[in-house]
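Quick one, probably user error.
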């Protein structure tokens, strides 16, 4: 299986554009298969989607309970925190919907079932990402959209063309950053094998952290999520521009528009990590 993985990587390097097209096609076919399977039991789909919506809504309920006792959290009002919540929940929900199955990779590495993906004529990353594609995750995206809509109604924003254009840019850029973190966390499981909880600390844990203003966290943590794992570009920095608030760490104003560039850089690094992890895979030996 080591030779199979190396051959797969060599083919990927030889024809990058063709491999991307092939990967997207494989992803679409696998995801469509799981969608058809899901829609065969529509009542179950509706119930699980609502359950996903309700479970994620509890996070915002916790924020509402906090504000029932205080007027501001770290100097941020309820509407401003709701804006952070929506601007983190939507990108994470999109990334989780598209590529959230990466957290199952460690199990495949441990039991050797990754071997079946290596022998198929399709990129392994596309197959892993689309495995058990779950439409129920739309519940998180829907809940984030509702909270963001509430925030935009209650928060007094001096809208400009730049701020309006920044809204969809930060949502898509944030989804790209989270997707890169999912891939990098998956690559780490080639080495650690039983590290899904470690990966979740950066994915689900990072999303939860971004729901709160940077002013409630220690400066070292803010530096870490700005310069090491750049989750601050998902919503903290762009939201500061939209709200007219000072940036954490006294960063220059242009960083608010950097999420797409950060997403591309993170994606490239995550791709390198994935290829290195796949090359190191040696199956279970059984």
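Nope, works fine. Designed sequence:
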């Amino acid at each position: 299986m080591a030779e199979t993985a190396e051959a797969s990587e060599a083919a990927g390097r030889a024809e990058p554009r063709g491999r991307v097209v092939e990967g997207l096609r494989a992803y679409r076919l696998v995801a469509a298969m799981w969608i058809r399977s899901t829609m065969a039991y529509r009542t179950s789909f509706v119930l699980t989607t609502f359950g996903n919506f309700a479970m994620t809504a509890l996070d915002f309920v916790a924020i509402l309970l906090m504000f029932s006792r205080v007027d501001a959290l770290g100097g941020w009002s309820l509407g401003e925190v709701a804006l952070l919540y929506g601007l983190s929940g939507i990108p994470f929900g999109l990334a989780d919907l598209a590529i959230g199955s990466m957290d199952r990779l460690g199990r495949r590495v441990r039991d050797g079932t990754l071997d079946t993906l290596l022998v198929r004529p399709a990129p392994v990353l596309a197959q892993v990402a689309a495995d058990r594609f779950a439409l129920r995750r739309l519940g998180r995206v829907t809940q984030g959209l509702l909270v963001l809509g509430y925030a935009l109604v209650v928060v007094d924003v001096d809208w400009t063309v730049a701020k309006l254009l920044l809204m969809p840019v930060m949502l898509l850029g944030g989804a790209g950053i989270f997707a890169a973190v999912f891939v990098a966390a998956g690559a780490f499981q080639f080495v650690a094998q039983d590290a899904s909880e470690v990966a979740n600390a950066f994915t689900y844990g990072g999303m939860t952290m971004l729901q709160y203003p940077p002013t409630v966290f220690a400066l070292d943590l803010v530096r870490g999520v700005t310069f090491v794992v750049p989750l601050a570009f998902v919503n903290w920095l762009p939201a500061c521009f939209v709200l007219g608030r000072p940036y954490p760490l006294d960063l220059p104003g242009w960083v608010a528009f950097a999420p797409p560039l950060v997403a591309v850089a993170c994606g490239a690094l995550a791709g390198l990590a994935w290829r290195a992890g796949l090359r190191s895979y040696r199956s279970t030996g059984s």
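The first helix runs from residue 2 to 14.
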